[in-house]
Design goal:
The structure is a single chain. The protein has 767 residues and is α+β, with helices and mostly antiparallel strands. Among the domains are: 165 residues, Rossmann fold (3-Layer(aba) Sandwich), CATH 3.40.50.300; 97 residues, Thrombin, subunit H (Beta Barrel). The protein is built from 17 helices and 31 strands. Helix 5 packs parallel to helix 6. The protein is globular, with a radius of gyration of 34 Å. Belongs to the TRAFAC class translation factor GTPase superfamily. Bms1-like GTPase family. TSR1 subfamily. Its main location: nucleus. Keywords: Nucleus, Ribosome biogenesis. It is found in: Nucleus, Nucleolus. InterPro entries: AARP2CN (IPR012948), Bms1/Tsr1 (IPR039761), BMS1_TSR1_C (IPR007034), G_Bms1/Tsr1_dom (IPR030387).
């Protein structure tokens, strides 16, 4: 309906031409001849959603994340998932774990208790709630057991003392757990009912204050009655699970039972049958398996025995019948003899190889066979070089300089400090060695990289492997130049980051054939030494991780670490240290270098307490993220935590440069020239190092013009007049490589000496 009096255009209304967009547009349309190109819609336009669509998309993502968290909670401890693994960790000598376990076992009649014998722990089966738990106690003072169990635990249950909370051993244990990566945890405090009411309130306030520093936003659960234990179980079952990246991408399990079958050739090596629940990812029989603390092995087959912790009453009755029988084998392995189904057997064409090193060909690169004359000349030259090196070493040993022999020792050899602490005199010798280390660390802080020029060995001979650089930051250095022979034994990726992303994307999107998460399986592991079974019989946990492709191969690993505040002893480069990297333990002698964004990184002779450093070692490939803990073994076999951090990269091309600084003093000073002495002691050395640029501690730069006399004096030109108290420096550089000292066998540490008083330290947790 048109309102009265409204104007309506008539048939003679002017019609203007539409804008054509210019002649170029028309020309392109004419050239196209009416054809329309098929053009994909850009991703940017696809993302330009309306406000309602964006809100709907965010709502869908939020709902998907919520459903994933709920599905994870429902699967953990349910019939289809693995039992909820809870590791009980006492943090105080008065915190008795057996009282806590006894209280947790005293639930209602619907809960079935399954004794695990020698393994130390029990299982709770609740068919009414459709939940099942497995409780394992970490041996007090056994650091390796605590760290290994924390690698696979769903939850950690810390048992605190009602008065002091945790002692020094508990503090050390917490420091290691925070650095390795802490899974979901809960805090329980049994006892304290015998204290007077006023002291009980004061102790509770003191404990709450200490917990607030170490465990922010953590809830403290008293554990004295059955009702309190039920609340604790409900909290363990419903709290959100925290993920550790290094274990979520790898299949792993904690051994429930184990059986050793000796081999035909020797009783010391055989097949180890390990049963447990698959966790993390799908288990493939063709992959390699790493037994924590023992090494890498291959599997022959995977079986599916009856589930000993099934919520099905029929299976539980069968298990009760098997429990009535005496232990003819370790931890009831007779259960595996009944109704065992073979899930999969290894495919020799798809099985991963155990080869960890490249076998170098010594004749690689040779084109012609040498003649007899050439062989005799080479042998004579080799003997002459050996004789010269022996004389050089003797001369350096008799040299009066103190800095240089220590430098050479740090460069060529590793001093083992695993000395026996039997006599007091030996303890005094150890104290003297530590005092000498403190002196060297202090000298390195005051005069970084400075060394004394030897008097009886020409500098051009002593420093013949070093070179000068115009600029440490911008001067080029070929990463493939003068590589050591050990580099022929390692593996290197063309693009490590791309390989890692492709591998992780494959794990997330593609489905792997094998045993799914939650299945109870038996792994047949080949060529395992009997010491693994003996360790399991002693009550130590047996933890298994499946390796990703290439993770058995040796390469150069770089770790970014920071000094732990609990340790202040000097740690020199190339000292033997103990590494806990992800799921591995090994010993190695690392290099320390600065963490910069440049292509060259300066070597550090000591582990600095005030900066993050990069630690470089030869070790098996591990795909990050992975946490790392560095320990140093004392003479009494205790392990001190000295540094924590994470895996930075797997890169053999990372260039670590060792710097040497030769110093001289101005003897005569002119406008822009000076006569410098004490840097060299003969004319030939001055001529040899003439192309290298000079600098001073006060910022002047210059170069050598000419030698003066025959005793090492030289005339130098600078960009300004020197001060009499200034020092002239000459920098020399050489690329260094780590020593091949990798050893996968780490000795067990002695228990930590407990003391009542502790000082909690706030630390950063590694995820």
């Amino acid at each position: 309906m048109v309102a009265a009096g409204a104007h309506r255009p008539g048939p003679l209304k002017q019609q203007n031409k539409a804008h054509k967009g210019g002649k170029h547009s028309g020309a392109s349309q004419r050239r196209a001849g009416g054809r329309v190109s098929v053009k994909a819609q850009p991703r940017r336009r696809l993302r330009d959603l309306s406000r309602v669509d964006r809100r709907h998309q965010a709502l869908q993502l939020r709902r998907q994340r919520k459903e994933a968290v709920l599905a994870e909670k429902r699967s953990l401890g349910s019939r289809d998932g693995p039992p909820h693994l809870v590791v009980v960790v006492p943090l105080h000598c008065r915190a008795a774990a057996h009282d806590t376990l006894r209280l947790l076992q005293s639930q209602d009649s619907a809960v079935v208790h399954v004794d695990e014998g020698k393994a130390g722990g029990f299982a709770l089966l609740c068919p009414r709630l459709k939940q099942r738990w497995r409780f394992v106690t970490a041996q007090t003072g056994d650091l390796h057991a605590v760290l290994d169990l924390a690698k696979v635990a769903d939850s950690l249950l810390f048992i605190l003392d009602a008065v002091d909370g945790w002692d020094s051993a508990g503090e050390h244990c917490l420091s290691c757990l925070f650095a390795q990566g802490l899974p979901t945890y809960a805090l329980a405090v049994p006892g304290g009912t015998d204290l007077p009411p006023k002291k009980r309130i004061d102790a509770r306030k003191k404990l709450a204050k200490a917990i607030e520093k170490r465990f922010p936003e953590a809830k403290l659960f008293p554990l004295n009655t059955e009702q309190e234990s039920s609340l604790l179980l409900r909290h363990l079952a419903t709290q959100k699970q925290r993920h550790l990246a290094f274990r979520d991408r790898r299949a792993h399990l904690l051994a429930y039972t184990a059986e050793f079958v000796p081999g035909q050739e020797s009783d010391l090596v055989g097949t180890l049958k390990v049963s447990g629940f698959v966790r993390g990812q799908t288990l493939d029989v063709n992959s390699l398996v790493h037994i924590v603390g023992h090494g890498d092995f291959q599997m022959s087959q995977v079986d599916a025995p009856p589930d000993p912790l099934s919520l099905n009453p029929r299976v539980v009755k069968g298990q009760k019948r098997s429990q009535d029988m005496e232990d003819d084998s370790v931890n009831g392995t007779d259960e595996m003899e009944e109704d065992v189904k073979v899930l999969m057997k290894v495919d020799p064409h798809k099985q991963e190889s155990l080869q960890s090193e490249v076998i170098p060909d010594p004749m690689e690169g040779e084109q012609t066979w040498p003649t007899e004359e050439e062989l005799q000349e080479a042998e004579a030259s080799l003997k002459a070089n050996r004789r010269y090196l022996q004389e050089l070493i003797l001369q350096e040993g008799e040299s009066s300089g103190e800095e240089e022999p220590a430098e050479e020792e740090c460069e060529t050899m590793t001093v083992s400090e695993c000395l026996r602490d039997d006599q007091y005199d030996e303890k005094m010798e150890e104290d003297e060695q530590m005092l000498e280390k403190y002196k060297q660390e202090r000298m390195d802080e005051m005069f970084p990289d400075e060394v004394d020029t030897p008097r009886d060995v020409p500098a051009r001979v002593r420093f013949q492997k070093y070179r000068g650089l115009k600029s440490f930051r911008t001067s080029p250095w070929d990463p493939k130049e003068n590589l050591p022979r050990d580099y022929a034994r390692i593996f290197q990726f063309q693009d490590f980051s791309r390989t890692r992303k492709h591998l992780f994307r494959k794990i997330e999107k593609e489905e792997t054939e094998g045993a799914s998460v939650g299945w109870y399986v038996t792994l047949h592991i080949c060529n395992v030494p009997v010491s693994v079974m003996e360790s399991f019989k002693e009550g130590k946990p047996l933890v298994l991780f499946l390796l990703l492709p290439h993770e058995q191969k040796m390469s150069v690993l770089n770790f970014l670490v920071r000094r732990h505040p609990s340790n202040s002893e000097p740690v020199r480069a190339k000292e033997e240290l103990i590494f806990h990297c992800g799921f591995r333990r090994f010993r190695a002698s690392p290099l320390f270098s600065q963490h910069t964004s440049a292509d060259k990184h300066k070597l550090e002779r000591f582990l600095r307490p005030d900066a993050a450093l990069v630690v470089t070692v030869y070790a098996p490939i591990t795909f990050p993220p992975a946490s790392v803990l560095l320990f140093k073994q004392r003479s009494n076999a205790m392990h001190d935590l000295i540094a924590t951090g994470s895996l930075l990269s797997v890169d053999p091309d990372r260039i670590v440069i060792k710097r040497l600084v030769l110093s001289g003093h101005p003897f005569k000073i002119f406008a822009k020239t000076a006569v410098v002495r004490y840097m060299f002691f003969n004319r030939e050395d001055v001529m040899w190092f003439k192309p290298v640029e000079l600098r001073t501690k006060w910022g002047r730069r210059g170069h050598i013009k000419e030698p003066l006399g025959t005793h090492g004096h030289m005339k130098c030109h600078f960009d300004g007049q020197l001060k009499s108290q200034d020092t002239v420096l000459l920098n020399l550089y050489k690329r260094v490589f780590p020593k091949w000292t990798y050893d996968p066998h780490v000795p067990e540490p002695v228990p930590w000496v407990r003391s009542e008083s502790t000082l909690p330290v706030q630390e950063v947790e590694m995820e």
